[in-house]
Amino acid sequence: MAVDAKKMSGLEKASILLMALGEDLAADVMKYLSPTEVQKLGASMAGVDELTTEKMSVVAGEFIENTKGKIAFTGGDDYIKNVLTKAIGPEKANTIMERIGQGAETGGIDALRWMDPKLVADILRLEHPQIVALTLAHLEPEQASEVIGYFPQRLRSDVLLRVATMENIAPGAMKELEDVLKTQLSGSETSSMRSRFVGGTKMAAEILNHLDTAAESATMADIEKFNIDLATEIQNQMFVFADLIKVDDRGLQMVLREVSSEHLVLALKGTEETLKEKFFKNMSERAADMLKEDLESKGPVKLSDVEKAQQEIVRIARKLADEGKIVIGGAGEEVVV
Asked: 29-61: b or e for each residue (b if 16 or more CB lie within 10 Å)?
């Protein structure tokens, strides 16, 4: 049966292309993806049985001339695990492989981890805020922030406040939450929630770190009205673009190696001179001069574009910190990651 391109999702096409590239090239590509994107691609790759020329023509027409018949693919889970390991390290790769293995067969929270954030938001929207907070506390921070981004501001602040003040949850409450989610999803039982609890101000800070600046500021303002000490504790665990000034020279140089010049110019527009100088001194003299010229010649830019560029650089810094390559600190004391 002929392959219908219209019936193939973008995720499926990306998976087929990555699998055809080989482990090393696929791993290089994945290094630039977010954890959520890596998880989604890994799960999709696991569902591809074989690669054919016809499938390849959908995602890369130029491959048709270079391939005849079927493209050999016998790597299976080993191939996917090797790609993930080279991209994000063995520990995270093992975690994602476990989730891929559970993927479609689990209900409750595990099923939510593989769903589109907007769909998760639609599922949770009418639930009690405490149920929503419990659920988000068991998702990855990036996915949780995407989900909460679809909520109205009042619900967003209420849920983040509950996440920040969350303490150990009784097993009965966890079972009730799991039952609610299984009813919503009509899935099967999963026990992973009972063995994993993430909540409190650290989780709230990580979710806020992934929100856009406007949503983050509005939510923090709401939390400050309720409890200024709690807001301060959350703020102390957040990491924002201005905190890059606290990163040591070696660490900032590593960040700069992964940042595009376009993002850097946008990110530095309107920032304080001390932060700009921090960047300049960690570049070669020629590169610093070129950056200064670009900043001077760059006309007015949208604040939203500046914020997006800054968030991208912060994402890179967090990724390097997660890999243990640099040390970052929030608004409070510096911590070793």
From this structure: ebeebebbebbbbbbbbbebeebebebbebbbe
